[in-house]
């Protein structure tokens, strides 16, 4: 049996915005500037940041990830959620029905998101070819181990398969800190 | 084979202080007041709190746990460590050789700890009788599972056995948030 290794990418708190919200926050016809490309093709961390304001606390310099999306979405850790005073569910990206909102402030204006705050469900991006070779299907739940002094097996890690994806396991800062791992470390998919 | 269940106790950031440091922070002959008893016999959360100040950030209202100890020790999560700007190792309580220091401020004065900042290594307190019945030895490393939508197996959980202890698994807020568990939830010790 072969061992399937996956690079780990730690997602700090970040926000995806619609074109409409970018216009309110930064001005009409404003275009995000790429600071650096992300692991998934076409995605980038923008130079621009916003302030997010919850009922209990706020965070400045929250990174925008581009390009613009069909719905705005703030992804935070559960630790962040306590600090902001919101109670977001653990969700897959894009599944924002029934999630709490938040206030977002930019240099040109402010937006009240009615929904879109989530704790991102941990997941692994697979390219279609790799997934086929490894016998992994889209939406499959995986068990994934990271070694070290805080070694952890993450259960229920969602497989996401697309020919637009590059191999990467995405966890949030709580998960990374609990397991003592950083971006660039390696995880192993366990086969029962 | 029997299933061994353990209650989970989540430790938020907290500090243990020597009598000398309590005197500097709160005044000569000051005695801590118990706010509520903790799971371990004789231990209590004090009404008193302090401010801890690192090179990058600070936290107010950090709870003191009593009674006074032989060495002062600040226990924080890795998330907290990034916010404060310190790099503490993962350590068992009391093992503070070579750990970073921090500034602690109270209503009557300020103390510069030369060392004592740790990220507490996750552990389970067992009473001697229970440990004997379950075949668990002091210092043994255990694998412990928590169920739920963020189900996790924590590896390398340290067993601590004493006739002064009550059964409780102690994890920090990063670990609790990563696993989606709260104080009072139940974990299960895995037997291979």
TrEMBL record, chains A, B:
<comment type="pathway">
    <text>Polyol metabolism; 1,2-propanediol degradation.</text>
</comment>
<keyword id="KW-0012">Acyltransferase</keyword>
<dbReference type="Pfam" id="PF06130">
    <property type="entry name" value="PTAC"/>
</dbReference>
<dbReference type="InterPro" id="IPR008300">
    <property type="entry name" value="PTAC"/>
</dbReference>
<protein>
    <recommendedName>
        <fullName>Phosphate propanoyltransferase</fullName>
        <ecNumber>2.3.1.222</ecNumber>
    </recommendedName>
</protein>
<keyword id="KW-0862">Zinc</keyword>
<keyword id="KW-0479">Metal-binding</keyword>
<keyword id="KW-0808">Transferase</keyword>
<dbReference type="GO" id="GO:0016746">
    <property type="term" value="F:acyltransferase activity"/>
</dbReference>
<comment type="similarity">
    <text>Belongs to the PduL family.</text>
</comment>
<comment type="function">
    <text>Involved in 1,2-propanediol (1,2-PD) degradation by catalyzing the conversion of propanoyl-CoA to propanoyl-phosphate.</text>
</comment>
């Amino acid at each position: 049996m072969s061992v399937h290794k996956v690079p780990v990418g730690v997602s700090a708190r970040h926000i995806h915005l619609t074109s409409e919200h970018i216009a309110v926050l930064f001005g009409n016809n404003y275009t995000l500037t790429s600071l650096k490309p992300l692991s998934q093709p076409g995605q980038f961390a923008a130079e621009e940041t916003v302030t997010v304001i919850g009922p209990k606390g706020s965070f400045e310099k929250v990174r925008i990830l581009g390009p613009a999306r069909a719905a705005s979405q703030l992804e935070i850790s559960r630790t962040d959620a306590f600090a902001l005073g919101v109670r977001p569910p653990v969700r897959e990206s894009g599944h924002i029905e029934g999630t709490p909102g938040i206030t977002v402030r930019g240099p040109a204006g402010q937006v009240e998101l009615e929904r879109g705050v989530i704790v991102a469900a941990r997941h692994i991006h697979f390219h279609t070819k790799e997934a086929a070779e490894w016998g992994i299907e889209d939406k499959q739940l995986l068990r994934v181990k990271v070694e070290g002094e805080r070694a952890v097996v993450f259960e229920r890690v969602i497989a996401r398969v697309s020919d637009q994806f590059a191999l990467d396991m995405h966890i949030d800062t709580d998960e990374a800190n609990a397991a003592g791992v950083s971006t660039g470390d390696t995880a192993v998919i366990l086969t029962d």
